Amino acid sequence: MSPVDDSSNADIQVRVQHAATLSAAERAAVHRVFEASYKQPNHEYLDRSIDRIGMLAIAFEASGDAVGYAISRAHWMELPGFDAPQLVVLHGMRCVRPAFRHRGISGFVNRAVSDAMREEIAEIGRPARQLECGRYGHASRAGGRSDPSAVPQVGASPTAWQREVGLVVAEAYGSNLDPETFVCLGSGIPIGYPNAEFEATEFESAAFAPVDRARGDNLLVINWQPDAPPGWNDPD
After folding, report:
1. Would you kindly state where each structural domain of the chain is located, as residue ranges?
2. CA neighbor of 121 nearest in space, from 186, 73, 176
3. Which helix (H) or strand (E) holds 172?
């Protein structure tokens, strides 16, 4: 467990865990953070996300209870249109208990899980580019990217190549994707509603328009870093 390098958060320590080694007590602590952060929290969805993605960073206070977490892991995946496996970063849910917001906890857990991913990647060698992926459950977090490689784009339909890649990424998440809208179709049960709503921009609201939150939908957003492969945005 690593202490947070911040005197105002000296009581906070961060631990990176693989899903396979997560204890029942640690998993329960993560669920308590989720329950404190969301109305109608879907705990089965959280467990599936942890287990499919495979790694998370958890921030603990001195009492031993969790105050925040970030789920992410890099995976080498076979993607349509490529001769070799590509590095795909699957990002999951990030939560901080309301009483600990605005203290930088989200940044601490994000950096911890990112550092752990870099260490895993370094064992093989970092590629020239990677595909960053996330599923967004509410409008203020969705479609806000100005990166031209990001899919979906407001006002533009995904190309055939982008749809094919999106379907593979959605399968890795365990999601059922509508490749025309990049909506991951829900099970009929909401994922949850943040207990603090965030104001969405007009662009973000437009990107999120096809999502039915009550059904448990979310929006898959993918983008290449630092740049897209040749032909990524070419029309069909």
Report:
1. 1-71+94-127, 129-236
2. 73
3. helix 160-173
Whether the ω angle into residue 226 lies within 30 degrees of 0, i.e. cis, is yes
Provide the pairing of β-strand 86-96 with 55-60: unpaired
CATH classification code of 1-71+94-127 = 3.40.630.30
Residue 39's DSSP bridge partners are 193
In this structure, the number of other CB atoms found within 10 A of the CB of residue 206 comes to 15
Please give the Cα distance from 212 to 219 (Å, whole number). Answer: 10
pTM of the model: 0.91
Q: Which CB contacts under 8 angstroms, 24+ apart, belong to 7-14?
A: 8/103, 9/103, 9/104, 9/105, 9/108, 11/61, 11/62, 12/59, 12/60, 12/61, 12/67, 12/103, 12/105, 12/108, 13/59, 13/60, 14/57, 14/58, 14/59, 14/60, 14/108, 14/109, 14/112
At residue 5 the predicted structure's pLDDT band, cuts being 50, 70 and 90, is low
pLDDT in tens, 147-161: 788 999 888 899 999
List, as one string, the DSSP characters of 72-116.
Answer: EEEEEE--TT-SS-EEEEEEEEEEE-GGGTTTTHHHHHHHHHHHH
Measured in degrees and rounded to the nearest 5, phi and psi for residue 172 equal -60, -35
Residue 123 clears pLDDT 80, i.e. is over it: no
Check residue 7 and give its pLDDT: 47
Write out pLDDT tens, residues 84-119.
999 999 999 999 999 999 889 999 999 999 999 988
